[in-house]
Amino acid sequence: MLAISDSEVRLLLTMPECIELMADALEALAEGAAAVPLRSLMWLPDRSGLLGMMPGHHAAAGIMGIKVVSVMPGNHGTEYDAHQGVVLVFETEHGRPVAIVDATSITAIRTAAVSGVATRLLAREDAGDLALLGSGTQAATHLEAMLAVRPIGRVRVWSRTGERARAFAARETARHGITIEVAADARAAVEGADLICTTTASPEPVLEGDWIAEGAHINAVGSSVRTARELDATAVARSRLFVDRRESALNEAGDFLLARAEGAVTDDHIAGELGEILTGRVPGRTSPAEITLFESLGLSIEDVASAMFVYERARAVGAGRSLELGGVRASHP
Questions:
Q1: In which band, very low, low, confident or very high, does the pLDDT at 4 lie, cut at 50, 70 and 90?
Q2: Are both 205 and 219 inside the same structural domain?
Q3: DSSP per-residue string spanning 287-302
Q4: How many domains does the chain have?
Q5: Which residues contact 71 (CB under 8 A, 6 or more apart)?
Q6: What global pTM score does this model have?
Q7: How far apart are the first and last CA of the chain?
């Protein structure tokens, strides 16, 4: 069994590779070659954070696994990532554990990579005016993913804390060689943008539907529980909505569920899953003026597939640390 650290994951899994990996995993899910039970959440008594448990099975790859991750919104703006944990990978012939992989880096990369898949499928081909709401880890990886799939010419960032937005702009401008503007407020950030990524920890809407330009594509990432939302009901109602998985959206997607509770949409508002677009069962964007929305919740198949890729790459290059976990039962007379 290999233990693979955060820094090793970032070296072994590039964003372009992960985008292709996520497209394959979502297609496998749509074809019935993967199993993704709903995640189980255990809240801390004061609701300051939670422990999430996400099992999954990828039949085609012969693997199963689980991500166990803490989600601590109070970590935003500190030295600690809001998501921390591990992904455990097992082979399915004998059930041996083969890898334990840092989940902070896996989550950061694969979440943005799935948004990259959604953007490639749903955004206009010429989309290049990007608005980032939020300035944390997911904002950084989403910038990387958007640069990988569309010809980005302008980037604006907004954060509730202006100092963090300015630090993000300086750091990512130097990293990518593209000028990042700091917007005074969320409305100024998204005005005229044709790509919008919401990556905040806000429980209340930071994006209003009346601000969204025709033809825009939105990746809604920050909310993964039914009681929190980043988009108001108008934003959801104005958009053609796609999800990673219907069952997850109907149980966990606060952006959608709260808009439904307010009477703005019904369950039929979900146009399809990304995997259904990839398999040709559902059309993606249908017109240049259409507003498209991808509601990202995150699926265990994405974590397990990413961790298995990292494990195989680590074995090939001699990375990771070998652990004596799992074993062979002693023979009996």
A1: very high
A2: yes
A3: -TT--EEEE----HHH
A4: 2
A5: 49, 50, 51, 52, 82, 83, 224
A6: 0.94
A7: 29
Distance CA 123, CA 178 (A): 20
Can you give the residue range of the structural domain that contains 168? 111-295
Cα–Cα distance list, 100 to 118, 241, 282, 283, 288 (Å): 28, 35, 36, 38, 44
- Report the residue count for the chain: 333
CATH of the domain at 87: 3.30.1780.10
Question: What Rg do the C-alpha atoms of the chain give, in angstroms?
Answer: 20
94 assigned to some structural domain = yes
CA quadruple 174, 176, 179, 184: dihedral positive or negative? negative
Token pair listed for 182: 């700091």
> Which residue, chain included where needed, has tokens 């809001």?
82
How far, in Å, CA of 89 to CA of 66, rounded? 7
Q: What is the mean pLDDT of residues 37-59?
A: 94
DSSP string, 63-123: EEEEEEEEE-GGGTTSSS-SEEEEEEEEETTT--EEEEEEHHHHHHHHHHHHHHHHHHHHS
- Report CA-CA distances (Å) from 291 to 59, 96, 261: 35, 46, 22
- C-alpha 242/C-alpha 118 separation (Å) is 9
